[in-house]
Amino acid sequence: MKKTLILLPVLAGIAAGAQAQTAPAAPAAPAAAASAPEPAPSPLSANINLTTKYKFRGQDQGNTNWISPALQGGFDWAQNGWYVGNWNSNVNFTNASIEMDFYGGYKGEIVKDVGYDVGILQYYYPQKNKVIDFNVTELYGAVSYDWLSFKTSWTVSKDYFGIGEGFKKGVPLTSQPKGSNTLYFDLSGNYPLVDKLTLNAHLGYTLYASDLRNVKDGAGANIGVPNFYDYKLGVTYDLGSGYSVAGAVVGASKRSFYKTFVGADVNESRAIFTISKSM
């Protein structure tokens, strides 16, 4: 699912202070101007962050080195509950080096402190010499209470990150697996511990479509992918002016299966550090 350094010169302020000692006092501002409302906040926002590793749903999105930096960021527009946005990150897949996410939806409040969020999300991977299509479309819905949220994502595209297509190209099959109807459940909490320090906790579960769980090879043996859970536990510290730093441990279950399936231990727990800027 984010955030460049700005230095403000102080010479102008020093010069203004020197001038104020010799210039006559300015007239008082009109009362109407003093009470004028502040301009409405812009519906546009942006974010950028640098992280030591990018994991998605507990799995490495690139090589399995402990340090494989990713530069990430995006833009959002939000007004009257409606929103659209884009988020991007470098990845390290076969024939794909960038992930681009496009999303839109509506969020509101059911009762005080109880919110909801519904929308659609497109994962897009520009690819040259495409062998397997990684692109995925999901619908999602979430409810939240104070610092806790629960979200469900439902795959409506024909495949889930190319897993079904990969099976078809890899070995002879007696089935034709598709990834549509894969579900992902996300329970997350961001609990304020003390001023500027927030505890971040997450537990997720990937429930694959039955087609992917029950893939049969040419001999009729089940070689499908098992469901798995992923987790995150960390903290975020607010540095002010839109800057924050975070550290977390992130990983997933079924390590031995995915190490064989992918050829690397993509589910291993990693310590990940991130610096972010929101604008």
Question: CATH superfamily membership, which one?
Answer: monomeric porin ompg
Instruction: Estimate what percentage of residues fall within beta strands.
Output: over 45%
What is the string of SSEs from the N terminus onward? HHEEEEEEEEEHEEHEEHE
CATH topology: Porin
Number of domains: 1
Question: How large is the radius of gyration?
Answer: 24 Å
Low-confidence stretches: 1-29
CATH architecture: Beta Barrel
Helix content: 10-25%
Supply the helix-strand structural class.
mainly beta
Give the neighbour order of strands across the main sheet.
1-4-5-6-7-8-9-10-11-12-13-14
User: Alpha-carbon distance between the termini?
Assistant: 17 Å
Oligomer status: single chain
How would a crystallographer describe the biggest sheet? 12 strands, antiparallel, barrel
Number of helices: 5
Q: What is the β-strand count?
A: 14
